[in-house]
Design goal:
Number of domains: 1
Oligomer: single chain
Distance between the termini: 43 Å
Order of helices and strands: EEHHHEEEEHEHEEEE
Radius of gyration: 18 Å
CATH superfamily: Hotdog Thioesterase
Shape: globular
Strand order of the largest sheet: 1-2-4-5-6-3-8-11-10-9-7
Strand content: 35-45%
CATH architecture: Roll
Number of strands: 11
Number of helices: 5
CATH topology: Thiol Ester Dehydrase, Chain A
């Protein structure tokens, strides 16, 4: 990928893809999203986050997959088929700030992205029992979140393979080569952060809900045909301007050797005002 100059920023341009139009979270469907005043189904926050780090994966390569940090914050909706720019400000050789700008000039998201010189001590896999993916979760509420905080959350297994590959651009060839299924085959941020979304919804059913922010730390790249164990802890719940928020910590482990591959702090609105 060639990054072209725009003012004092480097700019990568692409077209948004709604990677979850059939999700149980119907905020990604046109019908329900419009009921809440949006133009259409929302592009998932994890997909927007992948856009925010895309230029740095191109720049830093596998180093970022092995030790990258990203703090991604969604501030405005992005819609399927919508053209956008990601502007990258390189702070120094190991740090950058990125901003996703819709073609109407509205900022949709921004991130701090970095290479971590010295990785934090990784978490250790707890021996929680894995839950079947078809487990029927209770409806989300403050009482349920408190129960999960007190008693512990359910763990889940997610696979990155040729059959389950989730990409964030409609054209595989527009991905960095490390992430292309026919090239490097490594898992992208949309899938990895998606695991935090899935385990959250797997523990308590929410519809609709909105992903707002993730703070993530990579510990090593996730290669093709990897099986991951996701474990979650509740940090806090709170109310703001009529919305109900949930903040959780999610750790991802490689099932083969039980080593941590990523930590994620996810913040979301689990109950929208008026729902």
């Amino acid at each position: 990928m060639k990054i072209t100059g725009k003012k004092d920023m480097d700019t990568w341009s692409a077209t948004a893809l709604n990677t979850a139009p059939d999700s149980e979270n119907r905020i990604h469907s046109d019908e329900l999203a419009r009921e809440y005043g949006f133009e259409g189904g929302l592009v998932p926050g994890v997909t927007i986050s992948a856009y925010l780090v895309h230029p740095l994966v191109e720049l830093w390569g596998k180093n970022w997959l092995d030790s990258g940090y990203a703090n991604c914050r969604i501030t405005s909706p992005l819609y399927d088929g919508e053209a956008f720019d990601v502007e990258t400000d390189i702070v120094d050789p190991s740090r950058a700030n990125t901003t996703l700008v819709r073609r109407n000039g509205v900022i949709s998201a921004h991130a701090e992205v970095a290479l971590t010189d010295q990785l934090p001590t990784p978490p250790i896999l707890r021996k929680d029992k894995l839950t079947d993916l078809d487990y029927k979760a209770p409806n989300a509420s403050r009482a349920i979140w408190q129960q999960l905080k007190d008693e512990g959350c359910r763990s889940f297994n997610y696979s990155w393979s040729e059959d389950t590959t989730q990409i964030y651009l409609s054209n595989h060839n527009e991905l960095p080569k490390l992430l292309q299924p026919t090239e490097g085959g490594y898992a992208n941020l949309s899938f990895l952060l998606g695991c935090s979304n899935w385990i959250l919804a797997g523990n308590a059913f929410m519809n609709p809900w909105v992903h707002l922010q993730t703070i993530s730390q990579n510990y090593r790249a996730v290669g093709r045909n990897s099986s991951l164990i996701a474990q979650m802890e509740i940090n806090k719940t709170y109310e703001k301007k009529g919305h109900e928020f949930i903040d959780v910590f999610v750790n991802l482990f490689d099932q083969r050797d039980e080593m941590c591959v990523m930590t994620i702090n996810l913040t979301a609105i689990y109950k929208l005002r008026g729902s």
